[in-house]
Design goal:
Elements lengths: L6 E2 L5 E2 L21 H12 L1 H5 L6 H7 L4 H12 L1 H7 L4 H15 L7 H8 L3 H9 L5 H11 L14 H20 L9 H11 L2 H13 L13 H17 L1 H10 L4 H9 L8 H14 L2 H20 L3 H9 L8 H10 L4 H16 L4 H12 L3 H12 L4 H9 L19 H14 L8 E3 L2 E4 L5 E7 L5 E7 L2 H6 L10 H6 L2 H10 L20 H4 L9 E2 L1
Antiparallel strand pairs: 1-2, 3-4, 4-5, 5-6, 6-7
Helix pairs in contact: 3-16, 5-12, 6-10, 7-9, 9-10, 10-11, 10-12, 11-12, 13-14, 13-15, 13-20, 16-17, 17-19, 20-27
Length: about 550
């Protein structure tokens, strides 16, 4: 169909006659999103002082501005800033223009053109593998990668005017897409090319020039925050993320999880095109752009937020579908009424998946993939976790036989075995039964709920609550000397007045335990924001559960 006879929407997608609309339906009835001069000036201020604002990204300034939208002409500049593509280009010795020339030389040797065509694909298919090996040894791109890129260029956004038909604009758009993908194959020969990259690069080419699109795609494919590991040959990371999604689905949407299990629908069936293409298959393009804005800001956690936002909106309808043949297409081709900008975006911005939770579940999945849990392994693990080894029993027996002061026993509660510090002057402290004193601390700690600084829990001991991020356990000896042991605590735990090692789990046990146990601990100890009335006198820097897992540091101080 000739493109000069078609109309295009404001994002460049063709508007077909409803009778001949292709299978990949795009939504075309968009509202005009206008931005005031004040909003544009605010974005200009952010770009002009980016070094200062980039340090405040986690504080929500840029995120709150993105929730109100960004002007179209400023989007490419924001993406480049968030990805750090300009710094990546400046630090790299890779020259895009030089490598494009090298690609063209290889294409001339092969007798094909970057503008492709069916004949070029046929000619590349007839090249023998021995000749291909010679090319790769000389530093050229694998011929199979070139052939696959030429095949996929025609499949990427076939309804967009930049890649549709045989017009001059479409031919140049396809050639630019080929050059960027081929240049990345030279940039990272270990990965080369993988299906799905064309949709990522095509989106970037719609927003910015060709070379800028290349460096932005390098940042997306190479950085851990974004899609690193998604496009390797094994596709192991996407499989792990599908397993993580399944666990989160069971936790957040138990009815949907049970429904999918009953029908036989595996998340990998619809997660793969969602995640690999970064939701570019959604019908509403203004929603896709908003999703990409947040992806650039927050990274890979955003794709989970998008997936669960879709589940939130579409849950009731999905539960009514009882057949896999109808349920899977409903997820692969999400209806436009589900992801309309006006209704979907508020739910999307309210849906958050924390990075620590994603990393924790990822560790569990990787642990299960590397060591499948069988009945024998489960029994062996139970025995090893609940029965001390002979060496540990011997160490405990030896330690029990040696006399220890009250101070040594108290410090042992707070400190892992590998980091215990025994002080030379500890023997001067009075010998008191540690079990009775610690029990007394627990009882008093639970009874005295109301905050009271410098409360004395037992003779010779008090807790200094002046610092929200640390706790000083102070012992006063009968003499004139004083011992202070600083114990690090997060602001959230400081509000709840917990003593690490006394009424919290042992740090050493948690660090040495399995990923599943660590995830349970992190989930229970998730930092929660305080209300505005509670923020007086507390720090705004929140500790993550990962910090809670670190060994507790102890220090001592004697004052004359």
């Amino acid at each position: 169909m000739a493109t000069d006879r078609l109309d295009f929407d404001q994002f460049g997608f063709a508007i077909f006659n409803p009778e001949y609309e292709p299978a990949m339906v795009r939504f075309h009835e968009y509202g005009q999103i206008s931005h005031t001069n004040m909003q544009c000036n605010e974005w200009d201020k952010v770009f002009s002082h980016w070094e200062r604002y980039s340090k405040q990204i986690n504080n929500g300034k840029v995120k709150s501005m993105l929730q109100n939208g960004i002007p179209t002409h400023l989007r490419s500049q924001l993406w480049k800033k968030l990805l750090g593509s300009e710094e990546l280009q400046a630090a790299s010795h890779f020259s895009y223009k030089f490598n494009v020339c090298a690609i063209r030389e290889q294409l001339v040797d092969l007798g094909v053109s970057e503008y492709g065509g069916d004949m070029a694909i046929i000619e590349l298919s007839e090249i023998e593998s021995s000749q291909n090996d010679e090319y790769t040894k000389q530093g050229y791109i694998d011929i199979m990668h070139i052939r696959q890129i030429l095949l996929d260029v025609g499949r990427s956004y076939p309804n967009h005017k930049m890649f549709m038909g045989e017009s001059a604009e479409a031919k140049e758009g396809k050639a630019a897409l080929f050059r960027v993908l081929a240049a990345y194959a030279r940039y990272n020969p270990a990965v080369g090319y993988c299906q799905g990259m064309g949709f990522i690069v095509g989106m970037l080419l719609m927003q910015m020039p060709e070379e800028d699109a290349f460096w932005c795609s390098v940042a997306l494919f190479e950085r851990q925050k974004y899609l690193m590991g998604y496009f390797d040959n094994s596709l192991m990371k996407i499989q792990c993320h599908a397993a993580v999604f399944q666990r989160l689905l069971r936790q957040k949407f138990p009815r949907l999880y049970t429904h999918f299990e009953a029908i036989g629908l595996q998340p990998l069936m619809f997660i793969t095109p969602w995640f690999l293409c970064l939701f570019t298959n959604l019908p509403c393009w203004d929603t896709v752009l908003a999703v990409w804005d947040r992806v650039m800001l927050e990274g890979i956690t955003t794709i989970f937020s998008v997936a669960f936002a879709i589940m939130t909106v579409h849950e009731e309808w999905l539960l009514q579908i009882r057949d896999l043949a109808h349920l899977l297409p409903e997820l692969l081709h999400v209806p436009d009424y589900v992801v309309k900008y006006e209704t979907f975006l508020p739910i999307f911005w309210e849906t958050n998946i924390e990075k620590w939770e994603l990393d924790s579940l990822m560790a569990i999945v990787q642990e299960e993939f590397s060591q499948p849990v069988t009945k024998t392994n489960r029994k062996r693990r139970h025995v090893s976790e609940n029965r001390p080894s002979q060496q540990r029993a011997k160490r405990q027996k030896t330690a029990a036989s040696e006399p220890q002061s009250m101070f040594q026993k108290f410090i042992n509660v707070f400190t892992p075995i590998s980091q215990k510090v025994f002080l030379e002057n500890a023997n001067k402290l009075p010998s008191v039964s540690p079990r009775r004193d610690i029990k007394d601390v627990k009882v008093r700690w639970r009874r005295n709920i109301t905050p009271n600084k410098n409360r004395t829990f037992m003779p010779g001991m008090r807790i200094d609550m002046d610092s929200p991020s640390s706790c000083d356990v102070i012992f006063k000896t009968p003499g004139s000397k004083r011992l202070s042991v600083s114990v690090r605590r997060s602001p959230r735990i400081a509000q709840k007045k917990l003593i690490p090692g006394v009424n919290t789990p042992s740090t050493r046990t948690l660090v040495c335990s399995s990923a599943k146990v660590q995830h349970s601990f992190k989930t229970f100890h998730t930092p929660t924001p305080l209300r505005q009335s509670q923020q007086k006198g507390t720090t705004k820097v929140w500790a993550s559960p990962d910090i809670e897992m670190q060994p507790v540091r102890t220090s001592h101080l004697f004052d004359d």
